[in-house]
Amino acid sequence: MKKIIMIGMAALVALSLQACRKMLDIKPNDRLLEDAVFGERNGVYGVLNGIYTSMAAADSYGQGFTMTVPDLLAQYYSSYQSSYNSLVQGNYVGSDVHLLTDSLWSSSYNLVLQTNILMGHVKRDQGNGLTESDRNILLGETHAIRAFLHFDLLRLFGPVYSIDSNAISIPYNTGEIQQIYKILPAVDVMRQIQSDLDSAASYLANDPVITNGITNTFDIVVGNNFMQRRNLRLNYYAVRALQARVALYRGDKASAQVFAQEVITKTDTIFTWAPSDASLPGSVNQDLTFSSEIIFGLFNSGLYNSYRSLFSPSNATVLKPDENGLLSFYEKNINDFRYRGWWRQDPNGVQKSRTFYRYVEPTTNAANPNPIQLYMQPLIRLSEVYYIAAETAPDPVTAVDLLNTVRLHRGLSSLDANTDLNKEIANEYRKDFWGEGQLFYYYKRKNALTIPTTAGTGTTISFISSRYVIPLPLSESLNR
User: Fold this and answer.
1) What CATH number has the domain bearing residue 51?
2) Quick check: 306 pLDDT over 50?
3) Rounded distance, CA 246 to CA 273, Å?
4) What is the 8-class DSSP label of residue 277?
5) Which of 154, 216, 217, 282 is the most buried (most CB within 10 A)?
6) Domain count, the chain
7) pLDDT tens across 340-399, in order?
8) 202 is in which domain, residue-wise?
9) Burial 89-115 (b: 16+ CB within 10 A, else e)
10) Which residues pair with 356 in a beta bridge?
11) How would you classify residue 332: left for phi > 0, otherwise alpha for psi between -120 and 50, otherwise beta?
């Protein structure tokens, strides 16, 4: 079964890249090849699959937007490669920082351009074999991708939205040609993100995920796979979860609550909590990504290469926290499912303290021949939706109940109704999102002036508001 599914995935990726490369090779005056790519159903599917594949690259969500840049900014690691020194220390004018941020910026806007071209063809072209249902799904996902990419660019390069939403931020690209777009105030970018997400939700109103769930089978025919593994695409519920994330970031707690509750109440059989043995070392059901909770993720063929280069205990230098700082982040609870599963000491490794194991390649065996989490890069997960719902809940009792639901599925005891809710939500963010790139944006949304570090027990660092704003890359600012 594993061989069949992996062959299907390989065929899917190969066809996706072939179609995507054809599109990327198009010259401005060469429309014949572009028309050929978009002139048939599999070609259209292939381009969208290629966009998702490119999103999983190391210079995008396969590493840069998840495992490195935001997590280093969030002070998750006290040990790291020297090339990250300036970024961690807040010296954003260094050439090493420019290399990192320029890569994320360029890859994201290239993906936006690809998405816009695809969206335009889906809207205009006839005779390519697409049904109305196909078009709705394609348009829903492309609107969602465009919003997703711009939102993370806004969160990284834009102002602290809660205190200066009118500050100049980033361009919002909706065109199909490569050109210089006007840099907009953050509030205007946010409006366009909202508009794209509203369109996405409307187009995806009949997404198969609503009635069929994510489905975990593959057919080697690309067009057939498009409706499979819906959690590896921006499906309807992923859009709702993203709307909750966006609404909370802009301070609209009422809308965030509505979106989060829709996901919670309607997906209890689609996205389920990881079982307790998923994080148990040696378990045949080990699943360190907690894949059943992933509402949206990517098939990242380079996932284990990233693990080996960044976190492997056999390396002389890795991204890792101080042992005491790590334990402090988990409030000294060694039975927390995340701590016991993700942080381990390899007796044969160069590193003598605990290192990050979350993205280690799963072991296959007769009892578990096809781990569903293979190559799965999480981007939106169920626990975040619960944290959003708790933060925006109408009363403290409801909020604590929501937070306790997550804690129960992380091996923790329940909190009482008088708990400091904001403190406890922050604690859970710190524990839950290693390697996913979300903690820094939580701090930025809160404009936190002091944040914990993992340099030792109880260590903190001051963060003035300007430190949350990463300068636009030189490739962008010098061309204006």
Assistant:
1) 1.25.40.390
2) yes
3) 23
4) G
5) 154
6) 1
7) 999 999 999 999 999 999 999 988 777 667 777 889 999 999 999 999 999 999 999 999
8) 2-477
9) eeebeeeebbebbbbbbebbbbbbbbb
10) 343
11) left
